[in-house]
Amino acid sequence: MPSRLRSAMRKRSARATACRLLPAGGTLQRPPVPELARLAFQFCGGDESVIARRRLLAFVLLAVAASPLAAAAAAGGATVTFRKVFKSSYPEFVEIKVDESGSGTYDIRQLDDDANPQPMKVDPALVQKIFDLADKLHDFNGIDLEMHRRIANLGQKTLRYDRGADSHSVTFNYTLDRSASALLDIFEGLSRQQTDLSDLVRTMRYDRLGVNDVLLQIQKDYDRKLLPEPQQLLTSLDQLAADTHFINIARERARNLAARIRASGT
């Protein structure tokens, strides 16, 4: 079959598919996966013009955007946010957000500094624990966690639950509620863990002589069980242990700590 005839047949087939998926009313229908695959194949192959290929690609992208998966992503799942503001301390501001997929952000700084949230990932088991505790606290809807006794200022803490248009929060200085205390321990631990990791990465890049001091702090935090996910440190610890540019005592400490974390399974 001549190449020009094959090209014409491919164009007619693509137009026919588009017509089937875009009815007279103009509402885009989600094509099945085989249709998307065939359209993508036609886009990548053949000798159609660049303009035709771009139009076909745009159609495929619109079809994908109309899929249930994309709609669910746009709607978003639930998110639990922890915020702590404690002036004249270090750090003065901590905000950690975790969604149901385990994606999140952390922003740890002094109040005078600009907001700078950084991405983070939380393991599924810990995510489940966070949302289970939030559920026990009714997703912070209409609850009072404050102890209502005169005690020292320990920092203003806020827990917030968001799902779509629904949003509930509670703010307190100190609480005796066990579920709330357990949730605070997790977020305070994540804050300590991200601080340790950030300090380790920073000193590895800019202050090699300061690496050993950071490792000593990480080791103390690990021994006191303050780090909820110490395995998050393994990549940096392994890099340090293998890098001959660092002093041997730091490399050995990093190697031993990584071995302990792996042996404990945490």
What fraction, in percent, of the residue positions are helical?
40-55%
Low-confidence stretches: 10-54, 56-74
What spatial form do the alpha-carbon principal axes imply?
Answer: globular
Roughly how many Å apart are the termini? Answer: 63 Å
Mean pLDDT: 82
Task: Walk me through this protein's architecture.
The protein is of the alpha+beta class and 266 residues long. The chain contains 9 helices and 6 strands, in the order H-H-H-H-E-E-E-E-H-E-E-H-H-H-H. It has a 6-stranded antiparallel sheet with strand order 4-3-2-1-5-6, covered by helices on one side. A hairpin with a 2-residue loop joins strand 5 and strand 6. Helix 5 packs antiparallel against helix 6. The protein is globular and about 55 Å long. The N and C termini lie far apart (63 Å).
In short:
With 266 residues, this protein is of the alpha+beta class. The protein is built from nine helices and six strands, in the order H-H-H-H-E-E-E-E-H-E-E-H-H-H-H.
Provide the fold topology.
Elements: H1 3-21, H2 33-44, H3 50-65, H4 68-75, E1 79-85, E2 93-99, E3 103-109, E4 118-121, H5 124-136, E5 156-163, E6 166-172, H6 178-206, H7 211-223, H8 234-242, H9 248-264
Antiparallel strand pairs: 1-2, 1-5, 2-3, 3-4, 5-6
Task: Pick out its properties.
six-stranded antiparallel beta sheet; 51% helix; alpha+beta; 6 strands; 266 residues; 9 helices; 2 domains; single chain
